[in-house]
């Protein structure tokens, strides 16, 4: 029986860069003609990846500033991110560095991500020239520590499958590394002796030699031999 692994992908980026088109083109295998702003869309699909069945959950997050406080609530459950920008908007690429990665890291620390350049179809069809060249996207991906850089085109129906397959692989690799680290830690904890064992095996009682008893100099100089202390004190009080 094939093993089932759950992978959650978070899709983030500025509003209108093509996130929803990316998700729908992959899960429903069709191109959206009309863009509708997204608050939070959830997509789910089962697919085969190598020898595994992957339960793929995709969260298509709104890029609107109105949801800055709500959007990160889904991040702790996310294994890998697709951080998107538009190839015809240089500002959206700059926001990857200044907005989206800092938001992710503030919520969950470092997570693997794929840098995705969307809307290459507008440039392919001749309607607009590229604001971001492929070399620039690859350079940014390397600088920011992305797993990979991918460009997508709705007209050519290219790049969508590549994005998600890379994301799934990155998520599974990350899960495996986490599980291995957890296993090593648990093994170290189990191998440590218990508190009782440490006490009995490594701790030995230590007794310092008792100091020699001394007598007050006043009493020792005045006390005659074989005179009781009571008698001496009475005599001493009479003398005073």
UniProtKB/TrEMBL annotation:
MF (Gene Ontology): GTP binding; GTPase activity
Gene3D superfamilies (alphabetical): P-loop containing nucleotide triphosphate hydrolases
Cited InterPro entries: P-loop_NTPase, Small_GTP-bd, Small_GTPase, Small_GTPase_Rho
Biological processes, Gene Ontology terms: small GTPase-mediated signal transduction
Polar residues: bias regions: 192-203, 213-223
Region (Disordered): 179-223
Pfam families cross-referenced by the UniProt entry: Ras
Signal peptide (residue range): none
Keyword Transferase: no
Record keyword Transport present: no
SMART domains: RAB, RAS, RHO
Keywords for the protein's UniProt record, in alphabetical order: GTP-binding, Nucleotide-binding
PANTHER family on file: RHO FAMILY GTPASE
Name of the protein described by the UniProt record: Uncharacterized protein
Organism: Dreissena polymorpha (Zebra mussel)
Lineage of producing organism: Eukaryota, Metazoa, Spiralia, Lophotrochozoa, Mollusca
